[in-house]
Amino acid sequence: MNNQDLVKEIVQKLGGEENILAASNCMTRLRVDLKDDSIVNIKDLKAVEGVMGVVEDETLQIVVGPGKAKKCLDILKSDYNISSELEVGDDWEKNKAAVKSGQKQSKLKRGLKTIGKIFIPLIPAIIAAGIFNGFAGLITNLQNTGSLPTTDFWNFIQLLLSLLGGSFLGYLAIFTGVNAAKQFGATEGLGGMLGALTIMSQITEISQIFGMYDAQVPLNSILTTGKGGIIGVIIGVYILSIIEKKVRKSIPDVLDLIVTPVVTMLLMALAMIFVIMPLSGVLSDWLVGALTLLVASENPIVSVISGYVLAAVFLPMVLLGLHHGLIPLYAIQLENMGGVSLFPVLAMAGAGQVGAAIAIYLKAKKTNNMKLKQIISGALPAGILGIGEPLIYGVTLPLGKPFITAGLGAGFGGAFVMLQNVMAGAWGPSGITAIPLMQPGSMLSYFIGLVIAYIGGFVVTHFFIKDEEVAQLQ
To answer: Which one of 10, 26, 112, 418 is the catalytic residue?
Structure first.
């Protein structure tokens, strides 16, 4: 089924285009805000060819896979005139839907989801930049060892790749500022401007004037360029959104366009320099220190334990929607450590689920459960490629115990990956599709970790799940 037909089927099962208030996408899911949830045929929606799973949350989430999710959203916008955001107006049904969606989750989950929404649109660029930087580093390593000639051609390729990688990662604060402004209701240009402010060289000069700069150890300065990182940018843009609205209310309309941005940014610049950047710098340093103890410990016992636990509990975190809170930690690691060690460990969770699914498939074959065999046959390739939702909602979660045994098995892969100090240059889909995201020296260890997680998930599930339990699932 092509994407056009897939969207047509989805719209039909959702109760028609008039029942769709808004739609957006993340990496693998099409997310829709609905006028009336009761008229949606969830069972038929799950049965649509190309739909890998359906998650009923404050927005209905339809799993269609990476790449396809964005294409389906584009079709909804162009062919069905569906907006990406709920419109504000006199339509009481739309306002009711917006309020209803806000009431379904705790403040913590809503906050984590907002943070996730800041970074989700950046993931394609993060992936591309990570791959470009990875291959640029590989060329440099090969040249240093004499395996690759130091010619103008290879120098040009290395410079081009590092240029592409640096053009995004070097200005991550600006992109974060723009997206944070969009989520918090501030002017996006001002959000980007505030992000850019944090990485300007004048910050260090101002720090020197006020005695806040440590010339001996610049990173220990109270204030320096980049201090506070993206945490400071997000906090700053949130405050920016509040100040901008208050300033706008007190300014005559005829002066709004000139006075509001000037006054807002002047106030925010002072707040960023003297309060937000220094304080968020302390917070960022604490987080980096904690992450270093957890995921970069020199003690192998700590590495094994932390790797096992992190990989084992990640699937329940996804189910509860708490995984959005990990995205800023990825970004903090990337900023401060030049790579992400947390992502490869958590990616083992999906691999453990693949192993569990294989064990269940063999038991389904033994007990002649043809329906379950068919479900696993369709979902397993997606799981291997890093799309875990079909296996979660079609296999392991309905059975109950395999959802737990998958995590217990994944922990072995997580322990190995942590012990080997596997580092990624970016984050994105897991599974074997994440291999190019790993830094050159980590690719093999990451693949071995996947295999260990496959085996772990298979073995634990095989011994803890009885044949009768699999036979009863219809």
So the answer is: 26
